[in-house]
Task: inverse folding
């Protein structure tokens, strides 16, 4: 019996570890680039098929249509072996070929080439020397190169995302690859964890912990696992947002009465008050150039989005339509603000163009929250309530591509998309 | 047949996993009752000797109006409804007349609708609203801390108005409870 329990316990742990996000095939209404990705020579003997990961990355973006390579014989692995008219006949505009070879020291060399099929010309060629367990990460890097060459925007397949999984009475802050693989639990608690936010260099997460029976702001270094409390004043401490230089955080504190916005060093210390209103000021977000802070305020009677200089000062109201516009997030180019809008009792993600004040509603959920831009600005990850449970979803910033990231794990909440890798 | 066996195995596994998950919760509850003020320990002795009507005596915070701790709110509102004035007055009287060194924490809560962080601030404003009534009634500002759990600690887990109504509330908790 004991042994059975032990076995069940072990399987539970194993199940939990595999309770990862699965990303559904996106729906898209835009043009897709037809691309063929040939199987790479030598990849069948490796722990990870590189071409499959590349194909899944590109198709998940919603911007590519995969063209079948089945029946091509022999499969080309060198430029001289490519029959361009044949690939053109299959409808492919781009083609990826490659090969993988194990070196004497156990590492593997991955070489790939990207072609423009119509012009019969090579667009990119790279080779990587990596450990076999890094093949998945290498495939993401290759997908990034292909994405950038063909769309002109940076790929975000090598980035990470964070989110909170709530299951029973347990709250887990997890970090996973952008495709939902390799979920790692970085914090587990019986108390809620909310509002995780990546430091600009991706080394740390700031979040709100309720471990002390009230909300406090904590910064956790991911590599070392070390945590430090940066805001634990009287009342509530919440909504951490990093300045672009990573040196300070804007936070929402209620130490002087109602919730207001303060600035605090990322290492902790005294808090400088930035807003002075008789209402609620919360959900600060720095503009990418560090000059502005957008935030939610109900100083005018209903919660609306405002913007003020990052050092404090007179705020300007940015949203006028509707009675509930909250939770601003700047796009990486600083031209747009994504936020949560309430209309007819439904909460959806909307996008405000700062130059024109145009607002577009991007999602059609009932309780959408926590929008977070991909570092290339092309997708917005957010939380959607589906069947009474929090699930993650993503929508392209032009509204054309929609995607659902489902999990069997429980409630998945409060996603935040990490920065581009630094190397 | 093979499939059926697999399903049974998975069901057993799921049940085992589920029961494992609930354990931390149970521990939390044990802990919170463990740190009750000593008055509770003395009541337990009296309980058996007295008729049930008076069984809960010994700790005034567990009796009459003081046992009521929750002030409920309307949707999108932080105004304290008249029906809760008596409850708040009773606690204010206790803090100003009976137990002058007592300290409380008022915990604001919201229903699940709306943005998480904004709800945290709304819950805090509900807690502030209750605090304001108490300070007007003479309780010193420094004896009341207001915090919020936003939508994170719902009392009722449903997704309809009866559940939401239970979750829009501020709870009064005495230090040491």
Result:
């Amino acid at each position: 019996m004991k042994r059975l329990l032990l076995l069940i316990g072990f399987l539970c742990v194993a199940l939990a570890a595999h309770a990862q996000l699965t990303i559904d095939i996106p729906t898209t209404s835009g043009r897709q680039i037809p691309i063929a990705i040939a199987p790479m020579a030598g990849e069948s003997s490796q722990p990870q098929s590189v071409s499959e990961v590349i194909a899944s990355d590109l198709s998940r973006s919603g911007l590519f249509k995969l063209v079948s390579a089945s029946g091509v014989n022999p499969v080309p692995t060198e430029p001289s072996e490519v029959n361009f008219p044949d690939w053109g006949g299959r409808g492919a505009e781009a083609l990826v070929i490659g090969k993988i070879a194990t070196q004497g020291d156990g590492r593997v060399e991955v070489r790939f080439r990207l072609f423009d099929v119509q012009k019969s010309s090579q667009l990119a060629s790279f080779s990587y020397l990596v450990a076999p367990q890094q093949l998945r990460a290498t495939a993401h890097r290759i997908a990034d190169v292909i994405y950038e060459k063909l769309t002109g925007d940076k790929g975000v397949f090598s980035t990470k995302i964070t989110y909170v999984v709530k299951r029973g009475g347990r709250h887990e802050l997890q970090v996973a690859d952008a495709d939902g693989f390799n979920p790692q639990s970085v914090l587990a608690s019986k108390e809620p964890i909310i509002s995780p936010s990546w430091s600009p260099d991706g080394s740390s997460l700031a979040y709100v912990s309720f471990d002390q029976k009230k909300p406090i702001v904590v910064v956790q270094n991911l590599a070392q696992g070390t945590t430090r409390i940066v805001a634990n004043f009287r009342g509530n401490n919440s909504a951490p947002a990093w300045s672009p230089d990573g040196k300070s955080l804007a936070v929402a504190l209620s130490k002087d009465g109602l919730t207001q916005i303060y600035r605090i060093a990322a290492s902790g210390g005294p808090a400088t008050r930035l807003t002075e209103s008789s209402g609620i000021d919360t959900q600060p977000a720095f503009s990418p150039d560090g000059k502005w802070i957008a935030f939610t305020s109900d100083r005018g009677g209903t919660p609306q989005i405002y913007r003020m200089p990052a050092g404090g000062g007179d705020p300007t109201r940015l949203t006028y339509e509707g009675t509930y516009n909250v939770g601003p997030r700047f796009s990486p180019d600083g031209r747009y603000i994504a936020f949560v809008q309430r209309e007819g009792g439904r909460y959806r993600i909307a996008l405000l163009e700062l130059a024109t004040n145009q607002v577009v509603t991007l999602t059609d959920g009932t309780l959408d929250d926590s929008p977070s831009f991909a570092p290339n600005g092309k997708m917005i990850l957010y939380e959607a309530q589906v069947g009474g449970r929090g699930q993650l979803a993503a929508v392209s910033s032009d509204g054309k591509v929609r995607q659902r990231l489902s999990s069997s794990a429980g409630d998945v909440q409060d996603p935040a998309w990490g920065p581009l890798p630094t190397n | 047949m093979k499939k059926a066996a697999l399903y049974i195995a998975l069901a057993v596994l799921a049940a085992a996993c589920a029961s494992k998950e609930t354990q931390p919760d149970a521990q939390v509850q044990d802990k919170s009752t463990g740190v009750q003020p000593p008055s509770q320990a003395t009541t337990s002795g009296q309980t058996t000797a007295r008729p049930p009507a008076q069984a809960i005596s010994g700790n005034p915070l567990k009796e009459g109006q003081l046992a009521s701790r929750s002030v409920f709110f309307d949707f999108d509102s932080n105004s304290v409804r008249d029906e809760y004035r008596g409850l708040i007055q009773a606690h204010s009287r206790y803090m100003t007349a009976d137990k002058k060194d007592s300290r409380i924490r008022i915990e604001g809560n919201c229903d699940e609708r709306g943005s998480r962080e904004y709800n945290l601030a709304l819950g805090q404003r509900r807690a502030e609203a209750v605090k304001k009534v108490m300070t007007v009634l003479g309780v010193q500002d420094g004896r009341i801390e207001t915090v919020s759990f936003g939508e994170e600690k719902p009392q009722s887990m449903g997704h309809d108005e009866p559940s939401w109504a239970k979750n829009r509330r501020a709870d009064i908790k005495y230090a040491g409870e």
The first helix of chain A runs from residue 2 to 17.
